[in-house]
Amino acid sequence: MLKRVHFPTSPLPYFLVAPQVIITLIFFIWPATQAVYQSFLIEDAFGMSTEFVWFENFVYLATDEIYLDSFGRTIFFSICVAFLSMSLALILAGFADRVIKGTTTYRTLLIWPYAVAPVLAGALWVFMFNPTLGIFPYILEFLGVDWNHYLNGSQAMSLVIIAAAWKQIAYNFLFYLAAMQSIPRSLIDAAAIDGAGPIRRFFDHIFPMISPTTFFLLVINAVYAFFDTFGIIHAITQGGPANATSILVYKVYNDGFVGLDLGGSAAQSVILMFLVVAMTIVQFRYIERRVEY
Amino acid sequence: MKAPKTLFSAAVALAMTAGAVVAKTEVHWWHAMGGTNGERVDKIAADFNASQSEYEIVPTYKGNYTETMTAAIAAFRAGEQPHLVQVFEVGTATMMAAKGAVYPVEQMMADSGEPFDGSAYLPAVVSYYQTPEGQLLSMPFNSSTPVLWYNADALKAAGASVPTTWDEVETAAKALVANGMDCGYSFGWQSWVMIENFSAWHDIEIGTKENGFTGFDTEFTFNNDHVANRLQAIADSQKDKLFKYGGRRGDSLPMFTNGECGMWMNSSAYYGSIVKQAQFEFGQTMLPLDTGVASAPQNSIIGGATLWALQGHEADEYKGLSKFLTYLSSSDVQAWWHQETGYVPITSAAGDVSEGQGFYKENPGTDTATKQLSLNKPTPNSRGLRFGNFVQIRDVINEEMEAIWAGNKTAQAALDAAVERGNKLLRKFERSAK
Fold it and tell me: CATH number of the domain at B23-144+302-362, out of 1.10.150.170, 3.40.190.10, 3.40.1160.10, 3.50.50.60?
C-alpha cells in the first residue's frame, strides 16, 4: 500500500516568512532597482531635468582614470585589511586558546573593539595620529619618520588599513577561538605525544581543521572591507589626500552626496553590486571546493 | 453615555480651532551654523519672532554645508522642502540651474510687496549672487574674503614693513627667515585664495562666459601665464623657506598662530580664532598686488554662504519670509552679526553703524575685508564665479596645486591638468543642467 502523507495547506508559513520577504523587498530589492534605473539617467540634483542616456554613465566611468585608480586601490585596501585582521586574529586566538588563567578577561578585552562604532573607531585613530597633537607622530619622530597623513597618501592609506583591520580583529578572533575550541582535544594531545611542538601542532593540525572558518571569514572580511569601512574612512581621511584613500564605496558617497552627480554615483553602486555578487560566486564555487570540512 | 462623548469631541474641536487662531504662520529655515554661530542664528530668529506676531521663523541645524544642501535637495524631491536654506557659495551654480526649485529672493520680495533696495547692499557681496541682468537670486548671509594676516611683532623684529605687493611679501619673508623664523608665509583654501581671488584681484578671468555667469558652456582659463608665473615663483621660494605649504582649508592656521610663519593669507573670518590663539601682536591687511600683472588691485571676491528660498509654499509664508529677510539685512542685525562673527556686513549701512560704535577703532583692521571687497565696482572678472560641480573642481585644483608644492609638476603643467580635468566636470554639469 502506498503511503501518502498529506499536509493541509495552511497560510501560516507564508504569513511567518512575510515580514522577512517584505523587509527584503522594501529595503533591498526596491532600492536596488531604483539604483539600476538611476544609473541610466543624467539628472540635475533637484530632479528638474532628466535625460535617459542608456549606458553613458558606465562608459564615462570606464574611461575615467580616477575611477579606475579607485578600483585598484580598493582591491589593495581589501586584501590588506582582510590579511592583517585575519592573521592577527588567528595569532591572538591561538594564544588565547592556550591561556589557562584569566581566560575570560583576555577574551573580553579582545572582543571589546567590536562594540565600537566605526566612526568612533575612526575618531580614536584620528586623535592618536594627528600630525600636530597625536602621540604616534611624536613617537615616530624619534625614529626619523615625518608623519603627516594629511599630505602623504601612503601614510593615509596605511592608517585607514590599520584602523579598519583593528576594528575587525575582534570579530575574527571570536570565530577563530570558537573554531579552535571545537577541535577535539584528543587530536591535539595525540600530536603532542608524537612529539609535535605547539607551532608544529598549530600549522599541521589546528590551521587545517579551522579552514572552513577561515573561508567564512574571508568572505565576511572582504565584504567588510568593501562596504563597512566607509565610516572609518569618512572620519579619518575623507578619501584624501588627493583621493589616496578614496575606495569605491567612498567614491559613491562623494560623487552622489557631495558632488550631486546622481547618475554617475548610481552607476558606481550598480557596478559595486555586481562586483559583490561575482566575488561571492567565485569564492563559493572555486575556493570552497578546496576547503576540507 | 453619549453625552460625554459629544461633549468631548466638541471640546477637541474647540481646542483645535483655538489653536488655529493662535498659531502663527511657520517659516522653516535650514542652516549649517553649528556651535556658537548656531546660537547666534537662533537669537536672530527669536528676536524676529518677538518683533511681530504673525510669523514664526523656525531655524533648524542640518549639519555642515554639504549635509544641509543635500538634505534640502532630498527634501525637495520628496516635496518636504523648507522655505529657506543656507547654501555655500560653491553650490550657487547647482542652485541656479534648478530653475523651478528656487524662488529668486528679489522676485519673491517683489511678489510679496516687500520693499527691496539692491543698491543698499555691498556690490561685491551681492554681485556673486545676481543674474547677469542684476536680479538678486539669494540673500547673502555669512560672507568673508581672504586677507593677508601678519605677525606684527615678528615683522618689527625683522625690520620689515607690512607688504602691499608680492615683491614686498618676498622681501618681508626673506627678512623673517633671516631673523630666524621657520617660514615666511603660508596660505589656506588655496583654490579660493590663490586662483579665484588672485584672478579677481588682478582683474583676469578664471573662465570664459564671464566666469560662468552667462552660460553653462564656460571653460576654465586660469592656466594663464599670470597665475602660472606667480605659483611657480611661490614654489621656487620654498627652497629658501619663504613659503611653506600647510594643508587645505584652514589646516595651516596653527603655523601662523604658533609663530612658525610670519604671514598668512586666508579668510577674514579667522579673526576670532586668531584673537584666541595668537600670543603676539597681529594685524590684517589687503592681499598683495602682483605688479607684473596689474598696476592697481581690482576687488576681492567673497566666500561663505547665502540663503535660498525654495518653491512650493503658500504666498502668505513667502510674505513672512520676505519680512524676515528685510529684518535680517537691517543695519542693527547686520552690524551685530558682523562684529560677533567677523563675517562681512552685507550692507554699507551696517558698516557705518559699526564705525559709529567705534568697533573698528577698538579692533583695528577688522574693516579690511569690507574695504577690499568694495575697493572698485566689480567687473565681469571680479564679481565672482559660477561653475557647476565646483565642489569637485576645487578638489581637482587642490590636488594639482599640491603637486606643484611637492615639486612633482611645474606650475604650468599642473594648471593645464587642472583646467583639463575641471573642464570635463563642467561639461558633465552642462549635460545635467540642460
Answer: 3.40.190.10
Q: Is B76 on the interface with A (CB under 8 A)?
A: yes
CB contact under 8 A, B94 and A44: yes
Contact A45 B73 (CB under 8 A): yes
Q: What count of Cα atoms within 13 Å lies in the side-chain half-sphere of residue A107?
A: 14
Find chain B residues with C-beta within 8 A of A242's C-beta.
398-399, 402
As a CATH number, domain B146-300+388-433 is 3.40.190.10
Residue B330 contacts A where some CB pair is shorter than 8 Å: no
Q: Does A257 touch chain B (CB under 8 A)?
A: yes
User: Structural domains in chain A?
Assistant: 37-266 (1.10.3720.10)
CA A223 to CA A276: how far, in whole Å? 8
ipTM: 0.70
**Nearest CA to CA, how far is A268 from chain B (Å)?**
16
Alpha-carbon gap, residue A180 to A248, rounded angstroms: 35
* Separation of alpha carbons B149 and A193, rounded Å: 77
Query: Tens place of pLDDT for every residue, chain A, 293 residues?
Result: 566 677 778 888 899 999 999 999 999 899 999 999 989 988 877 877 788 888 888 998 888 888 898 989 999 999 999 999 999 999 998 888 877 778 788 888 888 888 888 788 888 888 888 877 788 888 888 888 888 787 778 888 999 999 999 989 999 999 999 898 888 888 888 988 988 888 888 888 888 888 888 888 888 898 889 888 888 898 888 887 778 888 999 999 988 888 788 888 999 999 998 988 888 787 777 766 666 55
Backbone angles phi, psi at B410, to 5 degrees: -75, 160
- Residue A45 with chain B: CB contacts under 8 Å: 73, 94, 98
Do residues A60 and A255 touch, judged by C-beta distance below 8 A?
no
pTM of the model: 0.77
